[in-house]
């Protein structure tokens, strides 16, 4: 009987209880770290939702179409355009880019070499000719 | 008739079956407590897993009774989350740069479109050249304008751009063409205001 009591006490206080206490302590630390991870993950998800909403706001359903006859090179999200167009065409293309939410103009250079007003028999008319341009556009993705 | 052993130096003998039963009784309470504590451990682990199932599933965290293993798993999940945050920050910054460029270009073009005029009486404009980037813009414009008007379209463009840019206007030439009508070439230099 005495040996049974000693064995019982040894198993409980010598092995099981310390093991359980160590487990409880370890789980407390694990739980704290998990709570911290959950909090950070929730913040991440909130920021991700904000980002996706912001991205949706600047996306267009219709595909961006470039005019024909101009030189285009694409580097990731950046489009390098160059060429020459008549004033009206260039104006409508710039207006088209201006109205799109998914394209930002990073750089434009326009050189209208023949563009100046001339006075002919009481009327002022602009000279016409192709207008040279280069453009760097950035598309959102 | 009862069988008596009256030998003085007799030794008590334990039968194997008795010994085994005693052994079971000795170990059983300890084992039952151990079993109970193991069940408690399992339940605690399950509770934690249910409570944080979202992150545990997302980061494939394998929780065990071992503290070392759990901390290693959580450190791995932390690293993964950090790289996800870094990637998102990069994407967000790209979007902000895009948005800034978008707003800047829209401002300039909006002002130009709003004030552009092909009417001689209001002021007739011909764009000679334009150089725009996200920080600055330089425009040279021919303008046919009437001296009767106090504010020509070029003046209006410059005034509107002043809200966003530091403006510098240069009149490159200005000459009379007919009665009150004059032609001039103006260079507008716009530089992004530092905020």
Give the helix/strand class of chain A.
alpha+beta
CATH fold naming of the largest domain in chain B = Gyrase A, domain 2
If strands are numbered along the chain, what order do they take across the biggest sheet of chain A? 1-2-6-3
Report the order of strands and helices of chain B. HHHEEEHEE
What is the N-to-C succession of helices and strands of chain A? Answer: HEEHEEEE
- The general outline of chain A is rod-shaped
Terminal Cα span of chain B: 117 Å
Shape annotation of chain B: rod-shaped
* Percent of residues in β-strands of chain B: 25-35%
Discrete helix count of chain B: 4
Q: How does the major sheet of chain A shape up?
A: 4 strands, antiparallel
Which pair of chains has the greatest number of interface residues, and how are they split between the two chains? A-B, 57 and 64 residues
**CATH architect. name of the largest domain in chain B:** 2-Layer Sandwich
Beta-strand content bin of chain A? 25-35%
What's the total number of strands of chain A?
A: 6
Distance from first to last alpha carbon of chain A: 79 Å
Q: Whole-number average pLDDT of chain B?
A: 86
Biggest sheet strand order of chain B reads 1-2-3-5-4
Helix proportion range of chain A: 40-55%
Describe, in short, the structure shown.
Helix content of chain A is 49%, strand content 28%.
Structural write-up:
The complex is a heterodimer of chains A (141) and B (195). Chain A is α+β, with helices and mostly antiparallel strands and 141 residues long. Chain A has 2 domains: 1-57; 71-139, no CATH class. Chain A has helices spanning 2-57, 87-99, and strands spanning 71-75, 78-85, 103-111, 117-120, 123-126, 131-139. Chain A has a 4-stranded antiparallel sheet with strand order 1-2-6-3, covered by helices on one side. A two-stranded antiparallel ribbon of chain A has the order 4-5. In chain A, a hairpin with a 2-residue loop joins β1 (71-75) and β2 (78-85). The longest helix of chain A is centred in the first third of the chain and has 56 residues, at 2-57. Chain B has 195 residues and is an alpha+beta fold. Chain B has helices spanning 16-51, 53-58, 67-115, 153-161; strands at 118-119, 123-133, 136-146, 165-178, 181-192. Chain B has 2 domains: 16-82, no CATH class; 100-192, Gyrase A, domain 2 (2-Layer Sandwich). In chain B, strands 1-2-3-5-4 form a 5-stranded antiparallel sheet, with helices on one face. In chain B, a hairpin with a 2-residue loop joins β2 (123-133) and β3 (136-146). The termini of chain B are far apart.
